[in-house]
């Protein structure tokens, strides 16, 4: 392996050809700089992108004459004949004319900008709209920030957005105080397995639509919806190779190739490949990740565009259920066990495979009328063998808890799920006098299937006296039902885990007594019809939308006792944006959410319980959005209130640790602030802050009412600033500093609180020619902290101090 990378490194160093240089700027018709404009020498793969001041420097092979193509999103492209002999350094200026119809209605071709700022969202209104003009808060993180922070999973990204923190180390988050695990890919419903965070190697950006988004995407979570936007092909050649290594024996390799496949540039491609092998600061919790993600764009005419993505990802590791600490009593020391402690056996495993494909079509019938169709097919597969806590401590012969011994269970499970989402809509632009309309009408179909063939094998509890099986809990008043050891304590079916003297061995599966059960097959489908109008008059823009949903849930799908449950919901969304001046907009919005909670959504009733009432929510929000420093920096401030009803929480049932229960109502009120972009061409910046008070307002447990919700901090925020030197002997050297903080949080145990924390990070960069070397340092002060937690059995510690070094070659 080392020899391979040495040879690769030497090969990439061979840059031996004579070159000339063009320097200049790309401006719009108002003589303002265009950031992220692409300049490409026709017939070659030589090109560059303008910086935050619209400036560029392009090296090229000497020629008597070249044709330079200059393009940018929202502008008419220009092709310019250039004679290198007549160039004056720094005097070359290109002016592009705006073309409002060049902004693609769906995200077909790639984003050319190269900064922390993102201007356009395709998910905020279903069509391409400047984020500034959307009447709802949308936070985002671009691939440039992910690369600078070396954020390999979505869990490492969310700290850059206000009001979002990890709920656990699984694929779930707290958004504005509410737990969320419902995610989209390119605005379409994603499937996936809950236990592993997805990797980011193929992502252009991650954006979060704050608050209920059911009017756009049917059943979504009330706090917000995470949308993962994949990288799309570009019409100029770009290639990147990257190798990383660092703490926890981490090795990563990634490549990103894109460009045209023919001279006419009607067929474009992009290929992202990533591989990671890493251990962890958590015992026996190393994992291997692999992703292959090709993407193709076909542009048969200036009226039609088609994009196809195929993504396969695989994770091999173990399921980390979190850190247990000593017995459940007030004042228990969080440091009673080390943060490295994870309950696992050597032969435990978690194998997750995800495969999805998306296809998108945009066709313009006229410049004012277009059809947009998108479809995703998602397959997720889980193969699991784990030892985990049974959510209770061991019991002695009198029924007392033994605070250093964890009750254990083991699970062997195999399951698949399939998700389909079709979205089709027409957009027509017209005017009635001075009022302009962008009218959208469409249909969505969503289907999720848990097919026959899923099964579980479970062992736990205490052995029966007659040896016929096990009982989940120990009842000291029924001692005759149990077997006892020489000390008079009940004998566990799966040996207890000793927190004071942990041992990590190969399991004795053949000695356990198991219960085998099939997972209940289920299917749900959603048919949604919606209409939306964006109405513009002078400085005011109104957004009016209405969606009618029809939900069908099939329990026992495909069996002789198949049961159908239907529901319907009418979901409105209202919003307004007013331009206070050229840079700042004020906005307000009202939206509702609706989410059925049947077997097709939640899973097998035998495991999770039910039936449950639907989750309903509503939000009111107002705020300001602005662009500053020549539109290089984007900022949003939002004030909101969200209420939701019929929330699912863990029932804390020792006999079934996955059983869910329903809580009456919760409410969140808060204020948020986000900014992202560039202050100067050298200084890139993101910052965020959220104050959020999320409380329980209705519950069967009266002691809960008025309490702060679980894993919902009052304060959360962070920043990241990067400065790059562009002149002098230190040209190409960059430094970044950042940090994030989260205040104390409640857990599902009323006597356990997670402490607040602040984690500081830093990075160094050096760019020379086409190489970039970087080192990222995380948790500089080695702050012990917990990103989330359930109770004494499952806490999720954050990483201690670590580093990651990367060498990248871009050509």
UniProtKB/TrEMBL annotation:
InterPro entries, per database record: Beta-barrel_TonB, Plug_dom, TonB-dep_rcpt-like, TonB_sidphr_rcpt
Pfam annotation, one family: Plug
Keyword vocabulary terms for this entry: Cell outer membrane, Ion transport, Iron, Iron transport, Membrane, Receptor, Signal, TonB box, Transmembrane, Transmembrane beta strand, Transport
Transmembrane found in the keyword field: yes
Signal peptide region: 1-20
Chain ranges of the TonB-dependent receptor-like beta-barrel domain: 303-780
PROSITE patterns xrefs: TONB_DEPENDENT_REC_3
GO-annotated molecular function: siderophore uptake transmembrane transporter activity; signaling receptor activity
Location in the cell: Cell outer membrane
Matching CDD domains: ligand_gated_channel
PANTHER family: FERRICHROME IRON RECEPTOR-RELATED, FERRICHROME OUTER MEMBRANE TRANSPORTER_PHAGE RECEPTOR
Protein name: TonB-dependent receptor
Organism: Arthrospiribacter ruber
Classification of source organism: Bacteria, Pseudomonadati, Bacteroidota, Cytophagia, Cytophagales
């Amino acid at each position: 392996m080392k020899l391979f990378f040495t040879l690769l490194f030497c090969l990439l160093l061979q840059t031996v050809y004579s070159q000339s240089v063009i320097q200049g700027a790309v401006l719009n018709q108002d003589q303002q700089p265009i950031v992220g404009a692409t300049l490409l020498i026709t017939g070659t793969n030589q090109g560059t992108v303008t910086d935050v001041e619209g400036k560029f420097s392009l090296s090229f092979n000497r020629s008597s004459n070249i044709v330079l193509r200059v393009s940018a999103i929202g502008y008419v492209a220009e092709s310019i004949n250039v004679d290198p002999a007549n160039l004056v350094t720094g005097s070359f200026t290109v002016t592009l004319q705006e073309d409002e119809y060049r902004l693609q209605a769906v995200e077909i071709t790639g984003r050319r900008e190269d900064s922390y700022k993102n201007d356009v969202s395709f998910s905020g209104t279903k069509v391409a709209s400047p984020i500034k003009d959307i009447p709802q808060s949308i936070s985002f993180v671009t691939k440039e920030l992910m690369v600078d922070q070396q954020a390999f999973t979505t869990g490492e990204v969310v700290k850059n957005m206000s009001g979002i923190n990890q709920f656990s180390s699984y694929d779930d988050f707290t958004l504005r105080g509410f737990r969320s695990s419902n995610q989209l890919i390119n605005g379409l419903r994603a499937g996936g397995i809950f236990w592993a965070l997805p990797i980011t190697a193929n992502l252009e950006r991650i954006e979060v639509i704050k608050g209920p988004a059911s009017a756009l995407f049917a059943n979504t979570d009330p706090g917000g919806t995470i949308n993962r936007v994949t990288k799309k092909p570009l019409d100029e050649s770009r290639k990147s190779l990257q190798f990383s290594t660092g703490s926890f024996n981490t090795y990563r390799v990634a490549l990103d190739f894109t460009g045209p496949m023919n001279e006419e540039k009607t067929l474009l491609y992009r290929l992202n490949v990533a591989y990671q092998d890493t251990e962890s600061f958590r015992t026996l919790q190393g994992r291997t990740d692999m992703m292959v993600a090709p993407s193709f764009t076909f542009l048969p005419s200036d009226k039609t565009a088609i994009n196809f993505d195929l993504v396969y990802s695989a994770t091999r590791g173990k399921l980390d259920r979190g850190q247990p600490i000593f017995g459940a009593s007030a004042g228990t020391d969080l440091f009673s066990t080390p943060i490295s402690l994870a309950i696992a056996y050597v032969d435990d495993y978690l194998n997750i495979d995800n495969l999805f494909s998306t296809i998108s079509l945009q066709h313009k019938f006229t410049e004012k009328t277009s059809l947009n169709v998108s479809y995703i097919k998602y397959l997720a597969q889980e193969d699991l063998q784990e030892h985990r806590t049974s959510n209770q401590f061991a019991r002695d012969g009198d029924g007392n808890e033994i605070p250093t011994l964890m009750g254990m269970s083991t699970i062997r499970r195999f399951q698949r799920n399939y998700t389909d989402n079709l979205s089709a809509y027409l957009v027509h632009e017209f005017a009635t006098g001075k009022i302009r309309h962008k009218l959208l009408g469409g249909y969505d179909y969503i289907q999720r299937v848990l097919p026959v063939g899923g099964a579980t094998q479970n062992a736990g509890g205490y052995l029966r006296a007659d040896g016929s099986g096990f009982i989940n809990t120990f009842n000291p008043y029924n001692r005759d039902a149990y077997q006892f050891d020489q000390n008079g304590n009940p004998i566990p079916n799966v040996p207890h885990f000793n927190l004071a003297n942990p041992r990590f061995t190969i399991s004795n599966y053949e000695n356990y007594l198991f219960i085998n059960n099939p997972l209940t097959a289920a299917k749900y489908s959603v048919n949604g019809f919606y209409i939306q109008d964006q109405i513009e008059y002078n400085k005011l823009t109104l957004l009016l939308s209405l969606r009618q949903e029809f939900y069908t849930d099939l329990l026992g799908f495909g069996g002789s006792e198949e049961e159908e449950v239907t529901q319907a919901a009418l979901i409105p969304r209202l919003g307004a944006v007013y331009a206070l001046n050229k840079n700042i907009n004020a906005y307000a919005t009202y939206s509702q959410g609706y989410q059925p909670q049947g077997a097709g959504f939640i899973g097998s009733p035998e495991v999770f319980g039910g039936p449950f009432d639907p989750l309903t929510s509503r939000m009111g929000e107002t705020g300001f959005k602005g662009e500053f420093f020549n539109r290089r920096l984007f900022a949003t401030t939002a004030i909101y209130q969200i209420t939701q009803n019929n929330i699912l929480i863990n029932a804390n049932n020792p006999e079934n640790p996955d059983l869910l229960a329903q809580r009456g109502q919760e409410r969140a009120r808060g204020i948020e602030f986000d900014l992202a972009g560039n202050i100067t061409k050298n200084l890139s910046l993101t910052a965020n802050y959220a104050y959020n008070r999320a409380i329980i307002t209705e519950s069967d447990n009266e002691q809960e009412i008025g309490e702060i919700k679980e894993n919902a901090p009052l304060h959360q925020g962070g920043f990241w600033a990067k400065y790059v030197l562009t002149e002098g002997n230190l040209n190409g050297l960059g430094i970044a500093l950042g940090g994030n903080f989260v205040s104390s949080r409640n857990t599902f145990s009323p006597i356990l609180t997670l402490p607040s924390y602040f984690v500081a990070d830093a990075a160094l960069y050096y760019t020379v020619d086409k190489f970039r070397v970087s080192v990222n340092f995380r948790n500089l002060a080695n702050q012990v902290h917990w990103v989330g937690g359930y109770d004494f059995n499952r806490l999720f510690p954050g990483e201690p101090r670590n580093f990651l070094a990367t060498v990248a070659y871009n050509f």
